[in-house]
Design goal:
16 helices, 1% strand, 319 residues, mainly alpha, elongated, two-stranded antiparallel sheet
Amino acid sequence: MLRAIVSQAAAEMPRSVGSGIKSNGIDPGMTFRFLDNTRMEKEKYKSIKESDDWEDILMFIIALEKIESWIFSRIVESVWWQTLTPHMQPMVAKSSGRTTGSSTKKTYGRRHNLGDHEQGNFSTELWKKAFKDACERLCPIRAGGHDCGCLSVLARLVMEQLVDRLDMAMFNAILRESAEEMPTDPVSDPITDSKVLPIPAGKSSFGAGAQLKNAIGNWSRWLTDLFGIEDDVPVYNNIIVDDQRPKSFKAFRLLHALSDLMMLPFGMLADVSIRKEVCPTFDPTLIKRVFSNFVPDEFCPDPIPQNIIESLDSEVGPP
């Protein structure tokens, strides 16, 4: 808000004082724009950043942008590690009456438990609560159903970052070799209790894909109600200027693609062009990893044809 006020005041100054802002690419009427130290921004503001004239209005605005970016990153880290990550720990499952230990191993080893509805319901409700906890942490007043003077778009942008992290964490956990496999990366793979996943880890099936898609749909509707997050809405207020970031936000992109892949008929799976259309972000190595743990179920009782496995092997190439 301070930067918006400064920008507006600068725009109202005589041209000799305020013209430098427009000529250097800063829009005085902007409300939000978070910058990162990317190469593009370094080149764009190289001459400005080398200046030591702190009385320059443009320098002050850029300094405010840096502070905003730092504060925003700290908010994301705080909510992630203190609000969402605790829901990934074993004590969450224990407190909810779910058992751990040897009984877990037996449960996940049985074919008929793929697409386990008990686990799916538990996971769906668990993460609904986690999203609500995040909402209360970001703005207790809005979480209580009241109007607030804070900028709601900031909470939405924070949650978009957190949903992307959660999407990757669940994706990595589902692709583990078994439910008992421990995570190796605390950042991209922080889930230590596989029971918080919407489907069992280490196995794939048509039924598991359908259950995963159902859970994603429930979470997406909940996020829309809490934060106004909607799928495929253009992102006009990027926190980080990054050419790799999608033009629009879609909640749980990786899990969406994984569920589509699990439910893809074998005839279509053999077609490379169809596979690229359904899940363009997955390479043959990752697709082979998904289907190496495929288990037939009541929705798809047949095993994967050998010719499809051979086709994937030929695309992957020798190790």
